[in-house]
């Protein structure tokens, strides 16, 4: 992909993000932060490439070690982020209507 | 030239992952669809990780120099190392997610942001040290000496920006974590001339990244990394506790931009789409928080809010008479009411009073009282903080209302019950032009027939450092106690 193609994806994704995020209900802003945090750990893709690379040159061994460390950090975020989001979302419950029949005095 | 040809299938898979992430955020438009959204996120991440693992199988070669493709075989040691790294991260992440208290969510999110930032820096450093693996360089084989990699100029900018944003995210989030976790005072720490220092650092970082295009020397790269760590630290140090919702959102945004910058480096659409989504998400949340405080983003970033109490309402106001009530008085007033609106704030989170508060609400409902909850956008330490705590306590989400939806109802409400909130109820925001919070949208609790205000003591002021005129009004009854203790006593009195 050339730079302009990538830039196009980026700019369009910014607009998609703008509209999608405004549609998020304020009550779910904390889960929104937790889940965005989990998905921004897609940076693990870069970490995996670095960890898997058999490179040339003196730096490649260090690069591999840093890659592995980044895999650990990103995995904490991915698993922790999605799990904590799931835990929070499971708590949002609707009112059980039949139990409390609108009793006004 | 692109040495690292990505197969069209891999590109397609990354695109699908990106779309899954869009659907994940889309699901959060209502609590009903939110869990499906989270599953989309998990699917997207699985696709991205599996695609990378399959297209980047670690290889090694016995033969040297490794010329023949048949010499390459799978390097199982590295495969095991990678899987172990994922396993370790998964274990730490899952245990943390399970154990964390809901009241500690702002700290947790700040800690997670710091990890994204640090991971971005590590990936950036790895890409700088081994650019061939990332396909961002050309190999130059000189007549004499070792072959060396020349990083593409565009990649150098992307790499420089990526590590800079990552480093700022990391050190900024660490400070935010320490402040939210109470390891560090919430009061802003002001360095003299900090604006000049920050601007100079920023200019230095950008200048060095520009210079990096012409010269890929290590010292430039490392100086960018170090200066970025320093500026992230300096940016958050002067920001006070009340502005933390903006800071947390802003760091959320930065972690997205860091991922996007790395996506540019790797030509990876999943990373770019995600980065853009997260970046705009954090930016929008910061904007919403700033609007809810009637402050400009610049003034929040400049910091120092809530450090002095001499601004606005003079201290002499504290001598004015006020009424004190007991738990029994509060219980009586609320049980006689037709409608009670509960206004929770950060103090409720600190006192962990959400469960007993819901119990009180249930008791009142059983007596035929309409109970609603009113949430100010900046109540708590992060966007939506109060909503999560109420959800944890099993308060149905259709009893919980946002500022704009409920503010007109206070006039027809018998009792407004303020627990752990202060500045967001202060009428001075509408009337007193000299007040630091003037112009901030507030909950109109004073319009209720009676205001019950739980506060630990009369001495303290809110985070904005201003006195609240509400305390001295005729229709206000102060309930001075720990929030949890007071609500427990009210529940007892309601029996």
TrEMBL record, chain A:
<dbReference type="GO" id="GO:0005886">
    <property type="term" value="C:plasma membrane"/>
</dbReference>
<keyword id="KW-0472">Membrane</keyword>
<feature type="transmembrane region" description="Helical">
    <location>
        <begin position="37"/>
        <end position="59"/>
    </location>
</feature>
<dbReference type="GO" id="GO:0050661">
    <property type="term" value="F:NADP binding"/>
</dbReference>
<feature type="transmembrane region" description="Helical">
    <location>
        <begin position="65"/>
        <end position="90"/>
    </location>
</feature>
<keyword id="KW-1278">Translocase</keyword>
<dbReference type="GO" id="GO:0006740">
    <property type="term" value="P:NADPH regeneration"/>
</dbReference>
<feature type="domain" description="NAD(P) transhydrogenase alpha subunit C-terminal">
    <location>
        <begin position="7"/>
        <end position="94"/>
    </location>
</feature>
<keyword id="KW-1003">Cell membrane</keyword>
<dbReference type="GO" id="GO:0008750">
    <property type="term" value="F:proton-translocating NAD(P)+ transhydrogenase activity"/>
</dbReference>
<dbReference type="InterPro" id="IPR024605">
    <property type="entry name" value="NADP_transhyd_a_C"/>
</dbReference>
<keyword id="KW-0520">NAD</keyword>
<protein>
    <recommendedName>
        <fullName>proton-translocating NAD(P)(+) transhydrogenase</fullName>
        <ecNumber>7.1.1.1</ecNumber>
    </recommendedName>
</protein>
<comment type="function">
    <text>The transhydrogenation between NADH and NADP is coupled to respiration and ATP hydrolysis and functions as a proton pump across the membrane.</text>
</comment>
<keyword id="KW-0521">NADP</keyword>
<keyword id="KW-0812">Transmembrane</keyword>
<feature type="transmembrane region" description="Helical">
    <location>
        <begin position="6"/>
        <end position="25"/>
    </location>
</feature>
<keyword id="KW-0997">Cell inner membrane</keyword>
<dbReference type="Pfam" id="PF12769">
    <property type="entry name" value="PNTB_4TM"/>
</dbReference>
<keyword id="KW-1133">Transmembrane helix</keyword>
TrEMBL record, chain B:
<dbReference type="InterPro" id="IPR012136">
    <property type="entry name" value="NADH_DH_b"/>
</dbReference>
<keyword id="KW-0520">NAD</keyword>
<keyword id="KW-1003">Cell membrane</keyword>
<dbReference type="GO" id="GO:0008750">
    <property type="term" value="F:proton-translocating NAD(P)+ transhydrogenase activity"/>
</dbReference>
<protein>
    <recommendedName>
        <fullName>NAD(P) transhydrogenase subunit beta</fullName>
        <ecNumber>7.1.1.1</ecNumber>
    </recommendedName>
</protein>
<comment type="similarity">
    <text>Belongs to the PNT beta subunit family.</text>
</comment>
<feature type="transmembrane region" description="Helical">
    <location>
        <begin position="196"/>
        <end position="213"/>
    </location>
</feature>
<comment type="subunit">
    <text>Complex of an alpha and a beta chain; in Rhodospirillum, the alpha chain seems to be made of two subunits.</text>
</comment>
<feature type="transmembrane region" description="Helical">
    <location>
        <begin position="109"/>
        <end position="129"/>
    </location>
</feature>
<keyword id="KW-0812">Transmembrane</keyword>
<feature type="transmembrane region" description="Helical">
    <location>
        <begin position="219"/>
        <end position="239"/>
    </location>
</feature>
<keyword id="KW-0997">Cell inner membrane</keyword>
<feature type="domain" description="NADP transhydrogenase beta-like">
    <location>
        <begin position="11"/>
        <end position="492"/>
    </location>
</feature>
<dbReference type="GO" id="GO:0005886">
    <property type="term" value="C:plasma membrane"/>
</dbReference>
<feature type="transmembrane region" description="Helical">
    <location>
        <begin position="270"/>
        <end position="290"/>
    </location>
</feature>
<dbReference type="GO" id="GO:0050661">
    <property type="term" value="F:NADP binding"/>
</dbReference>
<keyword id="KW-0521">NADP</keyword>
<feature type="transmembrane region" description="Helical">
    <location>
        <begin position="79"/>
        <end position="97"/>
    </location>
</feature>
<feature type="transmembrane region" description="Helical">
    <location>
        <begin position="159"/>
        <end position="180"/>
    </location>
</feature>
<feature type="transmembrane region" description="Helical">
    <location>
        <begin position="40"/>
        <end position="59"/>
    </location>
</feature>
<feature type="transmembrane region" description="Helical">
    <location>
        <begin position="246"/>
        <end position="264"/>
    </location>
</feature>
<dbReference type="Pfam" id="PF02233">
    <property type="entry name" value="PNTB"/>
</dbReference>
